[in-house]
Structure formats: structure tokens, C-alpha cells
């Protein structure tokens, strides 16, 4: 029997010195769903992703991925369970080449001695070249990541996630700070990679959101303001008032 | 395509030049007193190589490497001391058969934890195992709590201070401030003669190369690239599914193992071990050797240890008061002017000119693992 939800977030709360950045938030993500989280600045969008991937420790609540409780797991355990995360600012290893960046994300040899014994075999190379092609960096494999443009770094980070092949992919503003041309290419790339997996995306670009979202959650002050299809959310008077309006 | 080979042509040339210096040039041009001194300098190179991996690649600055150097050295010294303290040699003591300093401190029997050091295999094992065990405990305590950067450096420095105080305070068990002295033979072989010292110099050289090869392997493995990744983007490494703490513990323990071997070779070649080699000052000096040589380069670390120590001997013979100031100035100069040390100067300035001189196109990029200065 296929389970109903891949991710169940229930009563998730985090409080920073009494300020509840996320307040008793619940939402559920189905397999192959693309969930977009929107909301005004400070609504707690990035914090929600931080809580799911273990970067921030929750004060209360539960986050279940399949049947595993993520809140008690370490970041690397969460990743290895199948949750991938892309950060808002591109975070790639600037001193390493594109090839090496992708290689480190390849899901093998992740223990200390595994890493010591890790061999670059044909399979690894093929996979890296394939991914590099997908993210438009096929010709820059030997380039140090420091020399890539902002957009290319974003793509590289997306590639690093792809090579992990996570079941649940979390993207934090993947098209922010990109030129129009890069943005278009990225949208195309994302549309391709969100197939066959569940995705949670934080995004402000409403055109882009409408394009990819299965469902939209609107956050406001750490709580769900509205949830549903793009159309429903856009016509919700509460959403119009706090976010889309003015 | 990417080269993941164990050694590039450039690495092989670098190793070969160093081997020629250590095994051919130094023994030919130096008298046996100076050769022994160079052997002593090279024992610090073991520590500097470990630091180059921990600090240069992994960004983990330890100001307590002297502790591991000292622990290795003390383990060796304990074995040699027991061998020197036969009942015949110590007949004038009130308790013959125990090390002299124990007798002076009114100890009447050997403490139980000295017993294993009657055995050479156990002592040699301890040379590596004891520093690694200490590093492991510190590493687990610090890295799983995500203590890093300056805080880690300060805590390791505190460890160096604690260790010195402990050794000095427990003089009945450790020989106190004098350390363990009057070491004579290794399995009946007198280590004080010139021939023995020359032999030990070569043993030291061979071990140094073994350590260099091990370090080269680590650097060229995926673990080496992970260290650089951790230095730059620790969080990203975590979110690529690695347990960062385990990698830090490993490299810290490896550095400690190297330092322990260096310490044992120091004891053998110099003939004593004392707390002056354990504390804060020697620990910081070891960081300077690594920085001067170029913290990103394992060969640089060896040259750094040699050069700074040679300068120390030369200048402190003529201007003893000025040496510390000179050392401080050197460190500042390295940080401000050439952050990648001698290795950086070589690969950025000297090598391109050499290449141009011989009219060759360069096969490798300069400073393959070079990082922008911090």
C-alpha cells in the first residue's frame, strides 16, 4: 500500500527567546507533490526548512519523513534518509572544482574510511558528467567553483542535490538574484528535476510559483494563513491582505 | 580531465628533491653534531605535516600539538629509562631498579602504569596510541559539540598548559621539570654514540617519508577534498550527508599520531624528554613551522620546520635575546606578506620563472590546492 504522505509536519514550533518564529505549524506533503511556501518577509519560511533538515532544533512538534522522526536526527542522517536541501545563498565549495563539488555530493563513501578508500570509477565519472550536462556546466568541470557566476553557482548547488537523488527536495529561493535569461533556464531545469520526487520550494516570483506548484502554503507570522491550489490561495482575501495585495 | 592520481609529476619531483636533501646532501655536508641537530629539527616536521593536514586543509587550528609530541616522546623515554635503570646501574639508590628521579622522590616501587614500558613493542605502540587516544577524547568532546575555530585553538592551548603543569607537578612519576634524562641504550644498543645518532637520523628520515606518503594519500583521497570543503563550507558538507565531527576527529587523531612519532624520534636522537617540549611555547612554535613552510603544503611543512629551527639555532647562538622577537616578526611577516608560506612563494614566484627559463610549458596549475588567503 502506498503511504498517503511522504512528509508530515505536525504542531511544529520553534521559539527564539520567547519569539515564536514558527508556531504550531502543520502541513502534509504527498509523494510527487510540489509544495510552494510563500509569505511575507519574516513569516518563518526559511526557518521551516531549517527545522526539517535539522539545522535548527525545534522547541516542540513532530516532523515525520515516511515513518522516521526527523527532529531527533543529525543533519547528515536526515540527508542520508533522503532529504536534500538547497540554501538561499549559493553554498558551494569555492576552492574545489565543479567536478569535485559534484563528487563530494555523490552518495557513496560518506564514512571516514569510506572517504579514504573512495575511488573515482567510471560509474562516478559518468554520473557526474551527466549531472553537469543537466545543470549546463558540462564544459566547466575543471573550473574552480569560485570562478563561476552567481547563477552558475546556484545551478551547481542544484546539481549537488541532484546527484544525491533525494526523495524530498527543499529549495530556498532558487531563482533569486538571477538574470532574466538565467531565471528562464533555471525554471526549465527545476521543472525537469521536480518530476518523480516531492519538492518544497520557497519562492517569491508568483509567475514561477504558478508554473510549478501543486499546492501552495501561505505562511504569516509562523502560522499557516492559507493552503490549497494557486488559484484558491490567490483569491483568498486574507492572503491578498497580508501578502499579495498592496 | 581531473587528475586524482596519487602523485602528479610535480609531487614526485618535490618528494625526490627532499629525499635527496635528507638522505644524501645533509649527511655529506654536515658533521655528525650538525646532522644530529638536523635530525632533531626533522622530528618537528612530523608535527608540522600533521598541522598542514589539520589546519591547512581542514581549518582546525590546534595550539596543543606539543602535547602529542610530548606524549610520544615520553612513551619512548619511559622505555629507555627503564632499560637504563637496571638494579646494577642504580645500586646506590635506596630502591635499586627504579628510575633515579623516582628514588629521589621517595618512591619505593614502580607505578603500575610504568610496567608496560618494559616491553619495546608495547612502548612503540604507546608512542602512537597514547597521543591518538588523547586526541580522540579531546576531539569527541569538542567536535561533536561543534566547538571550532578560535575556541578550539584556545582550548587546545589550555590542554598544553595543563599537561605541562601536570608533568611538572607529578615529579615522582614523570621526572618533573627536568623530564626524563640520562637515557642510554635501546635493547642494549648505545644511542649516545655518533654512529648510533647517524643511524637514528636515517631511521628518522625513513619514518618521515612514511608519514609524508601517508599524508599525501590522505590529501589526494576524497577525504582530503572533504577537509577543504569543510574548511570553506562546513554546513554544506553536513547537508551533503557527512558527519563532519567524525572527519575532524579523524584528522586530529592522525595529526596526533604523526606528532607522537616525531616525539619518540626526538627522544631517541636528543636523549631526553622534558616538559619544555610539551607546553604552549613549543606548541605555538610548531604552528609557526607549518605557517612558514606554507600550511597548505606537506613538503612546505618539512622545509618550514628545518628552516625556522636552523635559524633558531644560528641566531640564538649569536643573539639569544633577540631570537623570540625575530620569531614573532617572522610569524607576522608570514601572515601579512606571504600567507601561503615558502610553498606559496615557490609556486607563485619561483616556479613560473624556472619554467620560463627552461622554456617549458607548465603541466600543472600552480598551487593545486591553494586557497585564497584568509
UniProtKB/TrEMBL annotation, chain A:
Highest taxon listed in the record's lineage: Bacteria
Domain ABC transporter: 7-246
One Pfam short name: BCA_ABC_TP_C
Membrane-spanning ranges: none
A molecular-function term among this protein's GO annotations: ATP binding
Keyword Cell membrane: no
Entry keyword Ligase: no
Full protein name: Urea ABC transporter ATP-binding protein UrtD
Phylogenetic lineage: Bacteria, Pseudomonadati, Pseudomonadota, Alphaproteobacteria, Rhodobacterales
Amino acid at each position: 500500500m502506498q503511504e498517503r504522505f511522504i512528509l508530515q509536519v505536525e504542531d511544529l514550533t520553534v521559539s527564539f527567546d520567547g519569539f515564536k518564529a514558527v508556531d504550531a505549524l502543520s502541513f502534509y506533503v504527498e509523494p510527487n507533490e510540489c509544495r510552494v511556501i510563500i509569505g511575507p518577509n519574516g513569516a518563518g519560511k526559511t526557518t521551516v526548512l531549517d527545522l526539517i533538515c535539522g539545522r535548527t532544533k525545534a522547541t516542540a512538534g513532530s516532523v515525520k519523513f515516511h515513518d522516521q522522526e526527523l527532529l531527533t536526527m543529525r543533519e547528515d542522517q536526515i540527508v542520508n534518509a533522503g532529504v536534500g536541501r538547497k540554501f538561499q545563498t549559493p553554498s558551494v565549495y569555492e576552492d574545489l572544482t565543479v567536478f569535485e563539488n559534484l563528487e563530494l555530493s555523490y552518495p557513496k563513501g560518506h564514512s571516514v574510511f569510506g572517504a579514504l578508500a573512495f575511488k573515482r570509477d567510471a560509474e562516478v565519472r559518468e554520473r557526474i558528467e551527466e549531472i553537469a550536462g543537466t545543470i549546463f556546466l558540462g564544459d566547466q568541470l575543471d573550473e574552480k567553483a569560485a570562478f563561476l557566476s552567481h547563477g552558475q553557482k546556484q545551478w551547481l548547488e542544484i546539481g549537488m542535490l541532484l546527484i544525491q537523488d533525494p526523495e524530498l527536495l527543499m529549495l530556498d529561493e532558487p531563482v533569486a538574484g538571477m538574470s532574466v535569461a538565467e531565471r528562464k533556464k533555471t525554471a526549465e531545469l527545476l521543472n525537469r528535476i521536480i518530476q518523480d520526487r516531492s519538492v518544497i520550494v520557497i519562492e517569491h516570483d508568483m509567475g514561477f510559483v504558478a508554473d510549478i506548484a501543486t499546492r501552495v502554503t501561505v505562511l504569516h507570522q509562523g502560522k499557516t494563513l492559507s493552503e490549497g491550489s494557486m488559484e484558491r490561495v490567490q483569491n483568498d482575501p486574507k492572503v491578498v491582505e497580508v501578502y499579495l495585495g498592496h | 580531465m581531473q587528475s586524482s592520481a596519487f602523485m602528479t609529476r610535480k609531487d614526485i619531483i618535490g618528494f625526490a628533491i627532499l629525499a635527496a636533501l635528507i638522505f644524501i646532501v645533509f649527511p655529506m655536508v654536515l658533521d655528525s653534531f650538525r646532522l644530529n641537530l638536523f635530525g632533531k629539527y626533522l622530528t618537528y616536521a612530523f608535527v608540522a605535516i600533521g598541522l598542514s593536514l589539520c589546519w591547512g586543509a581542514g581549518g582546525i587550528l590546534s595550539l596543543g600539538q606539543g602535547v602529542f609530541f610530548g606524549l610520544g616522546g615520553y612513551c619512548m623515554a619511559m622505555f629507555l629509562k627503564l632499560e637504563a635503570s637496571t638494579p646494577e646501574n642504580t645500586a646506590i639508590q635506596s630502591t635499586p631498579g627504579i628510575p633515579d628521579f623516582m628514588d629521589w622522590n621517595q618512591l619505593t616501587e614502580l607505578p603500575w602504569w610504568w610496567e608496560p614500558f618494559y616491553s619495546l613493542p608495547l612502548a612503540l605502540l604507546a608512542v602512537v596510541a597514547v597521543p591518538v587516544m588523547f586526541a580522540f577524547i579531546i576531539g569527541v568532546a569538542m567536535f561533536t559539540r561543534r566547538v571550532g575555530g578560535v575556541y578550539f585553538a584556545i582550548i587546545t592551548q589550555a590542554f598544553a598548559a595543563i599537561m605541562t603543569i601536570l608533568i611538572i607537578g607529578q615529579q615522582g612519576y614523570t621526572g618533573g621539570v627536568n623530564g626524563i634524562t640520562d637515557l642510554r641504550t635501546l635493547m642494549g644498543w648505545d644511542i649516545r654514540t655518533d654512529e648510533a645518532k647517524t643511524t637514528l637520523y636515517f631511521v628518522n628520515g625513513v619514518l618521515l617519508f612514511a608519514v609524508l606518503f601517508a599524508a599525501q594519500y590522505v590529501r589526494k583521497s576524497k577525504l582530503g577534498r572533504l577537509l577543504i570543503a569543510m574548511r570553506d563550507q562546513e554546513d554544506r558538507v553536513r547537508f551533503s550527508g557527512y558527519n563532519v565531527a567524525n572527519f575532524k576527529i579523524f584528522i586530529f587523531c592522525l595529526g596526533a599520531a604523526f606528532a607522537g612519532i616525531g616525539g619518540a624520534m626526538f627522544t631517541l636522537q636528543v636523549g631526553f624528554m622534558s616538559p619544555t617540549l610539551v607546553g604552549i611555547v613549543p606548541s605555538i612554535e610548531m604552528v609557526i613551522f607549518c605557517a612558514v613552510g606554507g600550511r597548505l603544503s606537506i613538503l612546505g611543512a618539512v622545509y618550514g620546520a628545518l628552516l625556522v629551527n636552523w635559524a633558531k639555532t644560528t641566531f640564538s647562538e649569536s643573539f639569544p635575546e633577540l631570537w623570540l622577537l625575530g620569531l614573532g616578526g617572522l610569524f607576522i611577516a608570514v601572515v601579512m606578506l606571504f600567507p601561503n608560506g615558502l610553498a606559496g612563494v615557490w609556486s607563485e614566484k619561483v616556479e613560473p620563472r624556472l619554467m620560463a627559463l627552461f622554456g617549458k610549458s607548465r603541466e600543472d596549475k600552480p598551487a593545486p590546492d591553494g586557497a585564497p588567503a584568509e
